[in-house]
Amino acid sequence: GGFSKFLIFHKNDKKIVLKKFYNIIPAIKRGNPDSSRTLGKKLVEKGIIQKWQKGEMSNFEYLMHLNTLAGRTYKDLMQYPVFPWILADYDSEELDLTNAKTFRDLSRPMGAQTEERRDKFIKRYFEIDNDGDLSARCHYCTHYSSAIIVASYLVRMEPFTEIFCSLQGGNFDVADRMFFNMKKEWESSSRDNMGDVRELTPEFFYLPEFLVNHNKLEFGSTQDGTMLGDVILPPWAKGDAREFIRLHRMALECDHVSAHLHHWIDLIFGCKLKGPSAVEAVNVFHPYFYDELADLSNINDPLRKDTILGFVSNFGQIPKQLFKKAHPARINQARHWSGKDHLQLASTQPILYHLENLKPSAAPVTASLGGAVGQIALTEKGVVAVEKNTTLLPPHGNKTFSWGHDDFSCSLGNYGTDRGQVVFECLSDWGQCLCAVCPTPAKVITGGTSTVICVWELLISKDKWKSMALKEVLHGHTEAVTCLAVSLTYNVIVSGSCDRTCIIWDYNTMAYLSQLQHHQVPVTAVSINNTTGDIASCAGTCLYLWTLNGHALASISMTTEPAKEILCCCFTEIHEWDDRNVVITGCADGTVQLWKTVFTRVQGEHTASQHTSTDKHADGRWERQLVLCQELRRSSVPGNSPAITSLAISRNHTKLFVGDSWGSVYTWSVEG
Fold it and tell me: How far is the C-alpha of 581 from the C-alpha of 569, rounded, in Å?
């Protein structure tokens, strides 16, 4: 909550106002919030450094913390968050993260990645002599992060397309100078171009969309005739922007980068940012790039002030210094996400590392319900399951919302008892309710035979429900709505329908975003991956995988047998870069199937369906496919198993909870 005010002062007014603030709040004066000692102390006090050292925080998260504290923000392209180049291999078919030669040297700035270029920059440093003013000496007259660098990287997306053109005088740059090839960009900034020492932005580790020319922008062609469109990716990315981002993020989090990242932090945020250590590290930039030398409030010469403003506008600024001493290294330990820690018992590792060793529990883990299991929730008190046509209200799971009554009414009650139940008849105006979700304690979203989706608000007073008010009606489907899923992480709602489509809605604005088509039969289940944003939809015996933006990734049809109809699905969500994550489906014949996506090379002409990502290659094209990696069944006797109606994964991913049409919940795990 709360709000911020941005105040702009002229000349010496800032000092006067600050003095008044100091008189009112003396604590402000006790430490300059911008000093490196104070900024570094904040990281220590919050335990952020220690969490990163112990592996409790990812490298990506830690770098974002450092950027934020150093004054870098997404709202200012001149002080945009800066991330390192981490890879030096843009030629291999497969990315080898165990080979040190795969990586850039994180202990050196981009200008010193090769000995030849390093020597040239050192020579430049000693050649600069501004009338004997040694403070003007620098290795680099350009910067590793600026507005034009950021806009050039992200030019394929708005608003960066417009920003880039405005910085270029209204047009795109010459095609050869545009960002269009990862290998060429690396070679330019690490070796070939003395005026290019750029680093990367955070988007290179999580946002595949900026690498694809979805808007069909016309960038022209290079001197060799190459038409610019999507960014040309290294072979190991298999021509797929999502795969590039996944592997690039995996590289950022790998053991080699974790062991050397503190050296790069010293260069950008730490002890080698300025001073003698920076000179020794070949890491000195033009004086105007440093914030203390570009303090316009202390400069009276209008010509010099305009010069500094021009430098800052064109080249950006060095981040604030966070550390005066060398940054500590990450503690060498087995990566908790790698699945290779042999000291850790298999039973405490995620199930997706041991799919071939999963066993069912001998007995149900919850009390048997009167009907098919509709939802399984993991609360602080343990595993909670409710029948079909009932859902639990977050966050504690001790309240329930039920529907499907003969009179089309609904009810709110307490889990495990009929006492205190309150009935509402407002749903009856919208036909029969077939599905509902409760994303928050005060919001219910319903769908049914009326074809619309209703968003309701629950009014609670003194721990009692007073009313259920209709807030939004979402129109889009032409037949009954059969299933719903909500992700508060990505702020989207996904609805499935008998009209054989799914619709993605914006949770905040309740606006229509996109439609997922081409299902052959009515949609029976949907799920959203809160880590990646991917969407799974099930229709009959078919499983479909989509991006959050509605682009088809892959699909598979198991069989036409009705017994194999998919009734429920869910994702494992260990880490977005781990390719061992799976999609889990529950079928009417009692089987649980685990699917993963793999790339296979396909020969011949381009025949890929719209449900597949492809890349043409001399030896064929890469195609993303869904592959069955494990099938789980409690009973070996055909026809003797109840249908699987609900699925859930434990928070540490060591157990898979499976609910069936007989009202029982069993677990699958390494220990059974």
Answer: 14
Give the burial string for 115-124 (b: 16+ CB within 10 Å, else e): eebbeebeeb
pLDDT score of 524: 97
**pLDDT single digits (tens) 479-517:** 999 999 999 999 999 999 999 999 999 999 999 999 999
Coil, helix or strand at residue 578: coil
Give the closest residue to 543 by CA, choosing from 563, 570, 505, 575. 570
DSSP element (H, E) containing 468: strand 464-474
DSSP 312-372: HHHH--PPPP--SSPPPPPP----TTTS--TTS-GGGS-GGG-GGG-EE-SS-SSPPPSS-
Q: What is the pLDDT of residues 25-61, one digit of tens each?
A: 776 555 455 555 566 667 776 789 999 999 999 999 9
Instruction: Using alpha carbons, select from 402, 599, 567, 543 the residue that is nearest to residue 482.
Output: 567
Torsion sign across C-alpha atoms 63, 90, 150, 240: negative
DSSP 3-state of 32: coil
The span from the CA of 570 to the CA of 527, in Å, is: 6
The alpha carbon of 599 is separated from its chain's Cα centroid by a whole number of angstroms, namely 21
Q: Considering only CA atoms, which of 208, 145, 148 is closest in space to residue 173?
A: 148
Name the amino acid, one letter, at 648: A
State how far the alpha carbon of 232 is from the alpha carbons of 33, 293, 448, in Å: 43, 40, 46
Instruction: Report yes or no: 510 and 455 within 8 Å, Cβ to Cβ.
Output: yes
**Percent over 90 (pLDDT), the chain:** 65
Q: What is the rounded CA–CA span in Å between residue 200 and residue 179?
A: 12
Residues 6+ apart with CB under 8 A from 126: 137
Residue 344 pLDDT exceeds 70: no
pLDDT of 341 > 50? The answer is no
For 285, the 3-state DSSP assignment is strand
